[in-house]
Amino acid sequence: MIILKPPPQCASRIPSLRLSTLFLHSGALDAKLPAAVEEDDDAETVYRMISGSNLQGESLRSSGIHLSKDLIDRVLKRVRFSHGNPLQALDFYRYAAARRGFSHSSFSLDTMLYILGRNRKFDQIWEVLIEAKRKDRSLITPRTMQVVLGRVAKLSSLRQTVESFWKFKRLVPPHFFHTSASLNALLTTLCQEKTMTDARNVYHSLKHQFQPDLQTFNILLSGWRSSEEAEAFFHEMREKGLKPDVVTYNSLIDVYCKAREMDKAYKLIDKMREEDVTPDVITYTTLIGGLGLIGQPDKAREVLKEMKEYGCYPDVPAYNAAIRNYCISRRLRDADMLVDEMVKKGLSPNATTYNLFFRVLSLSNDLGRSWELYERMLGNGCLPNTQSCMFLIKMFKRHERVDMALRFWEDMVVKGFGSYSLVSDVLLDLLCDLAKVDEAEKCLLEMVDKGHRPSNVSFKRIMLLMELANKHEELSNLKQKMAVFSTEIQQ
Predict the structure, then answer these.
(1) pTM, whole model, 2 decimals?
(2) Is residue 135 part of a domain?
(3) In what helix (H) or strand (E) does residue 379 lie, and over which residues does it extend?
């Protein structure tokens, strides 16, 4: 089946994209869907209560909704992804915790801490952790440490991050803190939010106070651009008598592939087999990506065939890696053939697969085929992710296609995909540039009604347009709706 038909004038320049009819088959709906919908309705109801009322305790009691751990998990998750009011969420969290015999889940604790950290409420973070220590210390896990340290590291210095790490010593039992799990939580944070050099230096300063394990070195091996640095940790791990596993080898192979040292990558795979460590699908996917970096997409495709000979079968990410290589080379016919191949093997292309083609079409500024691919994507039951949304909304803005942008926004609202905050910035910018005040007001109200807060810049532009259009009553209504958000919009 043709997934994207090129216009005649483009036929010779960019080949068509096709998907097998097998991809059109959809699974049956879950028999438990009505119950799931009802649970989601309860989560939405509670979310709106805590977002729009200062008397949430009374509102929650009169609602008759049972605040189970699962429901609280989903409500806090809703707050997190909607960028809701952190202090109102904290009031709700404490209200639920104050009930007799109730204890939050680790997920709720971690989510609450993430919400507070994102909004720089660090004093409240430590208050919540002290409360958790008093009620149920077991809720504070290495994952909790990583959540808190991640928010601190993103906004603070390396020194402050390490100081925050040591604060956990007073919150958890000594035998828990002085473990490799705690050290690993810190090192993972530093690798993600700081630099690998920071992680290396902190490791060397703490390795005599903690007992590094295999996971410690797996963390330290990932992310290096220099193969020499990664090899140094690999040798130190060996010296400590730790035997590398498939994750260890995959991390080092990834370093070699990103450094375009493919000979070393192949030799390490041979060494894995010699030591009876079986390469897995991640090993081969990494190799496929590395071959793409050195401009050998055909050899990368051969890896898909070779891995089967070793009893390892490619999954969607493996195919995506090979498809990406062809897309980068603008060999879309070959990329399309791989899509057909994966579909025939029972694998469904995901949003990442589509994004590989969206990227090529975006670089070609091909609006028509991008829109057709988007419609096919929805028709095949695959919802766009954030990257898909940004490819599309930016193209609509470049072409000043308000009709497409509004249709796309409507799909987002109805189907529940995409990032409201990121997409709305581009959409509202387009509408304001073209003085589409009614459309901008409508989109912003839909966003607010869904519990998502627009950016200051977007809100200010719409306020100015509404004032110039003498829409004073509508503007007053909009400001009232915006009052549910914690951060005041500066006028």
Answers:
(1) 0.80
(2) yes
(3) helix 367-379
